[in-house]
Write a structure and sequence with these properties.
single chain, about 500 residues, alpha+beta, five-stranded antiparallel beta sheet, 15 helices, 16 strands, flat
């Protein structure tokens, strides 16, 4: 669903507009992919988990063949966590290590940006944005100012947000609809109501609905307007209020962190392969369950009935037959080799088309070289390149809101300052080879470059500070050992 918002052509009320877009979004293919992405990430693969087994039976009344649900038939539902592994590997590879911010302008400004974003943004926000974007095609970050006047951010699930784009490139918005369900208790009855927030550059309107499905009957959320100063002819409130002072961002305060330029989820490329793998493995399990129920062909059985036959077989592991009798077990053979080849082929395709790394592959070996690792990780690198470029755009928008916050709080105007973001990938390397390369590079390149590329270093700036302190301590120790020599070098001693 591609929503382009044109206020000049829209003559509906705001509540009607929200209801229309919500109805379209809820039944759209884009939202279904978002929900499926979350389900496959949680290894709750719908295609296999919702699978039912049927049998076909002739309907004597109509003469037709009816399909009837067969609860007695084996129905193994073996869901495999390929999407969980692919997404986790991608997000940890690109976003698990602390990113680096650099600015050619004021260091004080850069520190103010870091303080506004917060130290936990990396772990609590950015990686979750990466998971949501991978599962849903894009994820949403909502900047806001809390009641204490502090800058904060909140993550909005992909399936809860409807952007009203003003361009085909999906770069500018003229509105955003955020809807979510809330459990409430009215009297002695528990019910679910839907909260709807309609954000524009000028303000936000709050609605609610207690109806389900399409055509939700929206009304103003009276609880949000109890103490709010709202014009009689408008339901819009200010974006935020600090103390008694309301304010606006001047833009729609929702930032898109896209998975790629096309906003496609990772599941799009491997769903049919994962479904095929789940089904094939479950079918084998079903066959093995059915094989345990062996069918016997009896000839000249000397017992009285089939119940007695099964009792003798289970207890004595033998049966009595007449002189010309016989018992033959009828089983359907399964080609284990062919099934295994199919599983391995599907698994390889999932990692190939999902651009992941199969860590159980023979290609990795015991200690692959750096060149081999680059080749093995090339698909993952390409996939991460698309997310990295999109996430840098999202970070630039986040910096704009930080600048706006600094302006609103009277700190200053910093819109002309540019911040560069570097995502430090958690690259798989041959550690011994990397350390040897660092040692051999001493005197050829700067110590700072060597430190940044050393596999044991997590924070290069912190490690350089430690090296500087270590060198100063060593010089001081040397000075304490030879005080007279140092005094002579300072011009305060030596030979007369």
């Amino acid at each position: 669903m591609d929503i382009i918002f044109d206020p000049n052509k829209n003559r509906m009320t705001h509540m009607q507009l929200c209801r229309l877009y919500m109805d379209e979004f809820i039944k759209s293919r884009e939202r279904k992919w978002m929900l499926d992405g979350e389900a496959y990430y949680a290894v709750d693969n719908p295609a296999i988990m919702n699978r039912k087994m049927y049998r076909y039976q002739e309907n004597k009344a109509t003469g037709r063949i009816d399909r009837i649900l067969d609860l007695a038939k084996p129905n193994n539902r073996r869901a495999h966590g390929f999407m969980h592994i692919l997404v986790e590997d991608k997000v940890n590879y690109l976003l698990s290590k602390p990113f680096t911010l650099s600015c050619e302008g004021s260091e004080d400004y850069l520190q103010m940006v870091k303080d506004a974003i917060g130290k936990t943004f990396q772990a609590k926000r950015l990686m979750r944005l990466g998971v949501d974007a991978s599962n849903g095609g894009l994820s949403w970050l909502h900047p806001y100012i809390d009641e204490n006047g502090a800058f904060r951010t909140m993550i909005i699930k992909p399936g809860q947000g409807i952007p009203l784009w003003t361009d085909n490139d999906h770069e500018d918005m003229n509105g955003f609809i955020w809807f979510y369900d809330v459990d409430t208790i009215e009297g002695q009855e528990q019910k679910i109501i839907t909260k709807v927030e309609y954000w524009t550059p000028e303000g936000v309107a709050y609605y609610t609905s207690d109806s389900e499905g399409e055509g939700q009957d929206l009304r103003l959320d009276s609880e949000r307007y109890l103490d709010a100063a709202v014009d009689e002819d408008s339901e819009f409130m200010e974006h935020f209020q600090v103390g008694n002072a309301p304010g606006n961002w001047g833009k729609v305060p929702f930032i898109a962190f896209k998975n790629n330029d096309y906003e496609l989820p990772d599941l799009k490329f491997v769903k049919t392969l994962i479904d095929g793998y789940d089904k094939a493995r479950s079918d084998v399990a079903n066959f093995l369950d059915e094989a345990r129920s062996i069918v016997y062909a009896l000839k000249g059985y000397g017992g009285h009935d089939l119940g007695e036959f099964m009792q003798e077989l289970n207890y004595f592991r033998a049966i009595s037959l007449d002189e010309d009798g016989g018992a033959e077990a009828i089983t359907a053979p399964i080609d284990i080799a062919a099934a295994k080849d199919d599983f391995e082929t599907l698994k390889k395709d999932i990692y190939d088309f999902g651009q992941g790394v199969d860590k159980n592959s023979d290609k990795l070996g015991n200690s692959p070289s750096g060149i081999a690792l680059k080749f093995i990780y090339s698909g993952l690198d390409l996939k991460c390149n698309r997310m990295e470029n999109a996430f840098k755009d999202g970070m630039d928008q986040l910096f704009w809101f930080v600048n706006r916050y600094l302006e609103l709080t009277g700190t200053g105007s910093f819109y002309d300052q540019e911040i560069d973001v570097t995502f430090n990938r958690d690259i798989a390397i041959n550690e011994s080879q990397a350390i040897t390369d660092c040692q051999n590079s001493k005197g050829v390149i700067s110590d700072e470059t060597i430190v940044k590329n050393h596999p044991w270093v997590e924070d290069a700036d912190e490690e350089l500070e430690r090296l500087k302190a270590q060198e100063e301590a060593a010089q001081k120790e040397l000075s304490d050992m030879f005080p007279e020599q140092n005094a002579g070098e300072d011009g305060q001693g030596g030979e007369e």
